[in-house]
What we know:
Layout: H1 4-7, H2 12-23, H3 30-47, E1 51-64, E2 69-78, E3 81-90, E4 96-105, E5 110-119, E6 122-129, E7 133-140, E8 145-152, E9 158-164, E10 170-177, E11 180-187, E12 190-197, E13 204-205, E14 214-222, E15 227-236, E16 239-248, E17 254-260, E18 269-270, E19 274-277, E20 282-290, E21 299-306, E22 309-317, H4 330-345, E23 355-358, E24 362-363, E25 367-381, E26 397-412, E27 417-430, E28 438-442, E29 445-452, E30 455-462, E31 465-474, E32 489-492, E33 497-506, E34 516-530
Antiparallel strand pairs: 1-34, 2-3, 3-4, 4-5, 6-7, 7-8, 8-9, 10-11, 11-12, 12-13, 14-15, 15-16, 16-17, 18-20, 19-20, 20-21, 21-22, 23-25, 24-25, 25-26, 26-27, 28-29, 29-30, 30-31, 32-33, 33-34
Helix pairs in contact: 2-3
Amino acid sequence: MLKTDQAKYIRPDSIKNLIFSIYFPGRMTSLYRLMQLRLLFFLTGLFVNPAFGQLQKVTQLEFEKNPKFQEIMEVKPVPDGLVVMVKENSYYTSDHFKWHFKRLNYALDEVWSTSVKLESRYEDIHFYQNQDYMYWLFAEAQSENINILRLDLAQGEVDEFKGELLGKVDIHHFKVLENTAYLGGAYQEKPIVIAFPFFNKEGRILHGLYDKYLEINALEVNPLRKEINVVVKEHHKGKCGLGIKTYGANDGKLLRHIHVPGENGQSLSFITGKMLDISERESLLIGNYSNNCSDFSKGLYLTRLEEGEEMGTSIIKFSELKNFFNYMSAKRQEKIREKIEQKKKEGKEANFSYKLLIHDLIPTEKGSILVAEIYFPQQNYTNATVPLLTTRLSSEKAEDYRFTHAVVCEFDKKGRILWDNALVMDYMASKELTEQVQVSKKGDSLLLAYLDKGTLKLQVMKEGTMIGEKQDFELKSDSTQRRPDEEASVAAWYDQYYLTWGVRKIESKSPSQPEREVFYLNKLTYAVKSSSKQQ
């Protein structure tokens, strides 16, 4: 609403006189009438029911931090709600630490809460979640000992499964199928996958992977077929490609081994692969490819698999995507398009190379949606005061990652691209190479959101078309609302709802009382509003 001291300058009788003067101009000049007509359109925009969308806070919860402990809060979306987890460590030496869990429903009401005491000699290194459970993998440093923590999402019951591996394995992948965990990584610099049953705790190795020419790219479980798919990157004699080794969950035997791309695409090198199970018989493998063994990709691919066999592969070059270069200025985009057309006339292809961070595929009625974030590493020399000084101190560096944009594509079940677009990320920086964009589905629309320096940025997309402008919602780190929370976290929840959380400082109302900290949890919604007045 306009404040009283503002509204007095836009009186209803003034608007009435303005409308009257436009339609009954008298001696007014044409230029003056045009100016008044534009002003009328502006004023009616304040009062005529416009439809617009904006981010709104629905609910906020606060949890008091205990100053006697070092505490970290994490939030995990689950079916019909969320789980709030607080990791509690003593500031002093202790043999144990505690994790506290609290499950909330969509209204942020508590469903259950529980706590567990864990041995401090273990460090949590991986997390996995399915519809019924959450799993954390713990490992003891310089040891073969592991511990798997399982949280029942329905009842809040916690179980631990401890055991020993056959040796010290550097674990990079962790998945669970029924009552068996699958640990993928490297042992003596060669790839290995270990099946670890919860109840007999006798790990077994999946054979056919321990090869110096292989590297595990992804580890996928297929509950429908009760299979484990190990996607491996193959390096041999200067050539690179992907292979899929499929194992039975019951006995761990190798069922099949295929290479992608097949013989028709041997000049290509598939860099990464993400699998999506469409049915018990069909799967999709989507990722990025190069023309050599470089990590810089030239485009995207989609391979259809039926009963584990390749049924066809589609190749999409970056230059073929309609909106891939939208993150550039209009002038630079025009030069890129001119370059592409000139190369076509010469019978050549324009060469573009990017680093991509591929998300898990999002199933749709038509097929699947691929989200891939384009980034580049940026090294910062932390102790260098003189740029050209090459001393031991100046060589210490930290690596940041800059994200330029995220490409979003939908494929049909035959592997044909239906549409593409790009979410501009304005070279946002992150100290970790992790997925920045959170994707939520509302009907036939996609909501794409990411955090940048304490501000949540959200863009709505419908079948490849951007709807409206990018929305901003600033998160505050103190009760006076002065400072943004640059350490905040965000997660897509359900429909148009998002979760944001972090730590907020509450300033003392009395000089004798110290400043305190609380965890906060926000439920945000993207609401399409229709209002009779500008708010």
